[in-house]
Amino acid sequence: MSDLEKEKDQSNVEITSTFSKNNLDPHAVLSHVVSIDGRVVDVTGDVDEAMKYAFDAEEVELTDEQARKLLFKIDIYLLPLICLLYSIQFMDKVSSSSASVMGLRTYYHMHGTQYSWVGSSFYLGYLILEIPMSMILQRFPVAKTIGIIVVIWGAILCLHAAASNYPGLITLRTLLGIFESGVTPAMVIITGQWYKAEEQFLRTAIWFACNGLGTILGSSIAYGLAIRMNS
Question: Transmembrane stretches, by residue range (predicted)?
């Protein structure tokens, strides 16, 4: 048998069984398949569990009263956490402005455009990892990923106190921007997961408006520190 005939013989695969959505039981779950050579391949994992939950919930119908109660519970438990997190991350962004009033430029001997780069370096890091971070959030569990991000950015923020020179400060501001770049995409994903399309606009507007709350809280804390600098 020539090589060409062998190649043709190997490429001829007969379909042994076919199925479609129309001829499957509505609650059927694919558990295993049989390969061409007779091997049984198990199909198990989280996807099957998620499919079972989806089938169970497919026939659930909520009354208007039940839907309102469910929405209220989600708003009470989830929305405040999103708003608090978004406020805190905005406080980090503008903290250098408050610090400049209390001697940041003098301490690091800044001149020319060096202070401008303190703010720009943050958004440079933010820009670098914005797209990769969005892809990471789609690939890994959002809750765990955002939890890790918050811990890391909190540690970086604490390390600002240990920065003894200007290059060290710029490095920390860049790293802070890198790890905060996933916050807004994560909030958008969480809002999309927990709210209907018609409910998302108002909730997104609420947590996005917490930028202003972060400014108020950050400025209040900075004022309290400023008036007690010499005490």
Answer: 108-129, 141-163, 175-194, 206-226
SS3 42: strand
Residues 226 and 231: their CA atoms lie apart, in Å, by 10
Q: For residue 223, what are its two tokens?
A: 């004022």
38: left (phi over 0), alpha (psi -120 to 50) or beta: left
What the block records as the tokens of 13 is: 């695969």
Superfamily of domain 64-226: MFS general substrate transporter like domains (1.20.1250.20)
Residue 9 CA, chain-centre distance (Å), reads: 50
pLDDT per residue as tens digits for the range 50-105:
556 556 666 667 788 888 999 999 999 999 999 999 998 888 888 888 888 888 88
Spatial distance between the Cα atoms of 111 and 105, rounded to a whole number of angstroms: 8
Q: Are 177 and 123 in contact (CB under 8 A)?
A: yes
Give residue limits of the domains in the chain.
3-58, 64-226
